[in-house]
Amino acid sequence: MIVSHHFAPSTGTVARRPTWLARFLAAGGQPPVVVTAAPGFYGEAVLPGRSGREDLEVHEVPYLRRHAIMERAGRLGRQALRMSVVLGYRRAIGRALESGPRPDFLFFCGAPFWYFPLARWFRTRRGIPYVLDLEDVWFMGGLPYRMGRRAGLRHVFDKVAEARSIGGASLVVLTTEAQTEFYRQRYDSLPADLFITVPWGYDAEALGSVRPARRERSDTFRLAIFGKFAAYGSQDAAALAEAVAALHVQSRVEVLHLGKPEPELADAFRRQGLSMCFREPGMLPYADGLAILASADCLALNAISDVSLPVKVYDYIGMNRPVLAFAAAESALGRLLSRFEGAFLVQTAGQASQALGVLAQRRLSQLQPGLDTTQFSQHRQFECLVHKLSDLLERHRAEARGLPCA
To answer: Does residue 76 contact residue 45 with C-beta atoms inside 8 Å?
Structure first.
């Protein structure tokens, strides 16, 4: 049973992993039961047309009028909303358990994390083992995050709730080796193999049908950004705009930002006098966005922290396009991209300017010649995850029969 607050038709990045996992399991003949939020919780961030829930058994937490009121009622209202939604999930999971066969696992997907304590609640009362798919670091104490939470009561709650939830889990899934190592050190009294890495990946089906979008001028250097950039640090936006300005002196440049518009990013280019070079197509269907990215000479990104990866890096790798990454070499993003010939790790405007100069001379047109991108697909990651879950299930069954575990 997959429990995920974000699920199709949500356009949020965090909805991709649980949605793809459900489809992967269904295609393999093991369709999961899904407990998720009603689309009303996603506001305008909803894909038009089919919801993506039609072919699955889905139990929704209803979006009620009081929830809409709570969302607009400030901090206390949002806290009350979380409490109300947690109770909604407890009822929805209960209904799902009563209406069908007992699941092998409750698979809780993170971001948000505030309903994770329910996993231990159901294990205690129903005896159902659970898996936590964190996707990112939950309690961020000891880690610098560019969008980190301020200390306070929420900080204390996260620390306690994380420890109790992880302490009762059968498996804790992280998305980078750096995250996994961090959690193994944080909970060094727990078995190291409780924590495993299942990276994000790209949608092989979507990428397989993508054709680069047509370009009006072939002599224009196109740089594209997919999703958040200025949100992870205004200094990166300023450095990128300065580097593009230096390149613009020598050749035509076009910068495209796909996704929710970021005023800070647009302002960075305006201050360099490059508003005519900067365009924001906005939110696009996934395939349309990938077509634009596939037509770019360079794809730019940065990260929220040194232990986490932006999901779009796998889309970039899947398209095998050169990448300009604002990241330190020792960060998770830096370690991943350092293996590719066409990836440039930069931290200053000068370094970014040098990298763009190399790319503008068309010396590199791929991230890596002859790259086998299939190892970075989400399908490949899910194969590893299901294999791990199968082993874990056999261990649970052996323990239930009182047999020694392999």
So the answer is: no
* Each residue's pLDDT tens digit, 217-231: 778 899 999 999 998
Measured CA to CA, the distance from residue 172 to residue 19 in angstroms comes to 19
**Class in CATH terms, 205-371:** alpha beta
Q: Is the dihedral of CA 377, 232, 177, 195 positive or negative?
A: negative
CATH H-level, domain 2-201+377-400: superfamily: Glycogen Phosphorylase B; (3.40.50.2000)
Cα-flanking dihedrals φ and ψ of residue 309, to 5°? -120, 140
Query: 378 and 205 in contact (C-beta within 8 Å)?
Result: no
Q: Where are the domains of the chain?
A: 2-201+377-400, 205-371
Which residues have CB under 8 Å from 281's CB, separation 6+? 256, 257, 258, 289, 292
Helix/strand/coil for 270: helix
Cβ atoms of 266 and 230 closer than 8 Å: no
**Is residue 298 helix, strand or coil?**
strand
Burial of 102 (0-12, 13-18, 19+ CB in 10 A): exposed
Q: Are residues 241 and 300 in contact, defined by beta-carbon separation less than 8 angstroms?
A: no
Alpha-carbon distance of 33 to 97, in angstroms, equals 9
What is the tens place of the pLDDT at every residue in 7-33? Answer: 999 988 899 999 999 999 999 999 999
Q: How far apart are CA 78 and CA 267, in angstroms?
A: 31
Query: How much is the pTM?
Result: 0.90
pLDDT digits (tens, 9 = 90+) for 352-374: 999 999 998 877 889 999 999 99
Task: Tell whether the model's pLDDT for residue 89 goes beyond 70.
Answer: yes
Amino acid at 38: A
Tokens coding 124: 């205690």
Residue 397: predicted pLDDT: 82
Dihedrals phi, psi of 39, to nearest 5 degrees: -55, -20
| Residue 122: alpha-carbon gap to chain centroid | 26
What's the CA gap between 172 and 240, in Å, rounded? 37
- CA dihedral over 217, 218, 222, 226, signed as positive or negative: positive
User: DSSP E strands: which ranges in 38-94?
Assistant: 57-61
CA 150 to chain centre: 22
Burial label, 207 (beta-carbon count in 10 A; 0-12, 13-18, 19+): buried
Average pLDDT, the chain: 91
